[in-house]
Each structure stands twice: as structure tokens, then as C-alpha cells.
UniProtKB/TrEMBL annotation:
Residues 5-123 form the Gfo/Idh/MocA-like oxidoreductase N-terminal domain. SUPFAM superfamilies: Glyceraldehyde-3-phosphate dehydrogenase-like, C-terminal domain, NAD(P)-binding Rossmann-fold domains. Residues 131-287 form the GFO/IDH/MocA-like oxidoreductase domain. This is Gfo/Idh/MocA family protein. It holds the Pfam family GFO_IDH_MocA. InterPro entries: Gfo/Idh/MocA-like_OxRdtase_N, Gfo/Idh/MocA_oxidoreduct, GFO_IDH_MocA-like_dom, NAD(P)-bd_dom_sf.
Amino acid sequence: MSDLQIGVIGYGLRGTLSRHAHKPGGGSRVVALYDPEPTSGERFREAYGESAAVHTDLAAFLKSELDAVFVISPDWLHEEHAVAVLEAGLPVYLEKPMAITTEGCDRLLRTAQTTGGKLYLGHNMRHMPFVREMKRLIDSGAIGEPKVAWGRHFVGHGGDFYFQDWHVEQKYGTSLLLQKGAHDLDVLHWLCSAYTTEVTAMGALTLYDQTQDKGDADPWWHGSDEERLTRWPPLSLTGLNPKMDMEDVSMMLMRLSNGVLASYQQCHYTPDYWRNYTVIGTEGRIENFGNGEPGTTIRIWNKRHHGWQEAGDQTYEVRPGEGGHGGADPEIVGEFLRYVREGGATDTSPVAARYSVATGVAGAESLRAGSTPVRVPAADPEVAAYFA
């Protein structure tokens, strides 16, 4: 079996994901990059060798002898780049969020349908061990029929990861409810087996606009884990983007198509950094404690109690896998490469990715219009059927 020849569009912060596809002699190898930033090309060749092709022209890149392409460019370029790859007849791995508008997502779905292309979305949380175990338990009937779901995201390094660069300008990302929330909304939809139809939201820029020293830091500075811990409290941070017009707190209520009522909260200046999901069904409640690091557990309460039972009635320990995001990164890349070669079903879904963006867009519209309820537009059934 010859190696798949893999191209990469964008070699920024998420660029290292493509390294999981570089297995010369083992089925796939990364051979080419499109990125107009010179330092990206230098880092790419350091990773993949001096023979790796580096292009600053997209058309020339797409004329390379490629079997598939990873699109991991900045969010506002996802739509443009993925459409170009699909129209070139190549399978595409598209990093989340799918696009920064619902219309952009629908254009991508239509392009894949009309070209007969393979569009795969990088919602790697569907491959995180703790999410997969929650999904398995819920689908097995461990809490009965889901009726209520809550998602909370404590974005402890929000000031470092999002408020220093383009992420906090609406023109580049629409909303952090979309950009950061796309993962969480997709997980809530997956756990509850339905998509959101209506939202009501509120949010505001409540803290980071009050920092005094803005605009002096390298916009790509993330620092080491230990360095980040010293950047506290949040109001002491320096070098944030002075053009920020994005909310640092967002809260959203959702009605799903199967009647489940859900809520999602996101804060970008908490001292801790993790996600918590709770699903309540007709016969119990399930909740995760930890996101895959050692000690992560999933607990189920399915007996009646007088008060708080910390351990739950059943506790499941979740062991992290090998590789980034608790083992999710190598797993999702492996699934994409299998999909390129063989086709077939995948655990990620372009239609689901579209609904996570559409829900985030509707939430942003609602919170910026005084919490007015907003309907989430449905995907074209004919187009969606192509991905079934």
C-alpha cells in the first residue's frame, strides 16, 4: 500500500496536528504546505525535512500531487480554503469551527455534495476518552432518556489563548460562543442525540477590557505551562488585543429538536481550565469530573438520596490515551486517513459541525440583541442527506 501524500494549509498553533499523519512507509506522509507566512515554512521543513514543498500560492499548492489536505488555517479562512480543496477534487480535513457563519457552513456542505467530495471535520472531542465513555453510557440507557443537559467551560487561560490575537475581534470569529463553544455545543448535541432549534443568550465583555497595558505582547505568545500559572490575577495581564470586541462571558439556553432543554456557560478568566458536562435523564444523572487527565472520572447517580453523594452510585475511571488532547488527536487523524482510503461512517459529522456553528451564531445574535430568542436555521435536507 503506497503512502497517501498529505498537504497542509496553515502551520500555526494547530499545525502540529498534521504530524500524526506523517508515517512514511506506514500509510501516509506529509509532503507539502501552503502558508504565506515565511516562518511557517521554516518550521514545516524542520518538522518534515528540507524536501518538503512549501508554497505561498494556493493554486500552485493545489496542483501538487496530493491525496488529501488538512485545512488548519485561521478560522475566517476555513470556508475559502476548504471550498478550494473540495473543488480541486481532494478530501479535506477541516479544523473546527467549520466556518464563522452559518451561510459559510452551508456553502461548504453544498460544495461537498455537488463535487462528490469527502469533507471531514476536526471535532476531536468526539474522540476524547471521557466524552466517548459518557456517550456509551447514555446510549446504553444508564440514565434513561435524556431530558436536560448542562455544559460549563472554565477557560482558565482565556487571556493567553484568545484575548491577545485575532480571536477577540468579531470580524475574524463572530463570537467565542462559536469559536470556543463549537466543541462544547457539538458534544452536547452528540450526548443528547439532537441539534438545537432555538436559543436565548446573554453575555458581555466583563473584565479584559479593563486591563491597563494592551497591545505590547507577541500575539502568538502562549508561554509554558508554568509561565501561564504566574499570569494572575486576570486584570494584571498585559499585551491583550486593544481591538477586542468579543464577550469574555457567555451564557446560552437551548431547546433541542427532541425536546431536551440545555444550557451552556463559558467564562475566560477562571483560575481552573476544564469542561464539565451534566446530562439528566428519566432514570438518573451523569457527570464528568476532569477532561482526561489522570484521575478523571464519570459518575452516575441513579438512586434516590437525602443529600449530596460525592462518589455517585457508579463511578467510572477514564484513562487518557497517548497523544494530544488525551489521545484524541492521533485517533481523529487515523479516522480521517481511513475515511480517505476506504470511505464509510465516521464519528465526526459535517452536518453536526454545521449545527454547532449555527447554534453559536444564533447565540451571538441573541446576546447582542438583548437576549431575544433566535431560531437556529435547519440545514437543507437534501444536502444533509449526502452525508448520512
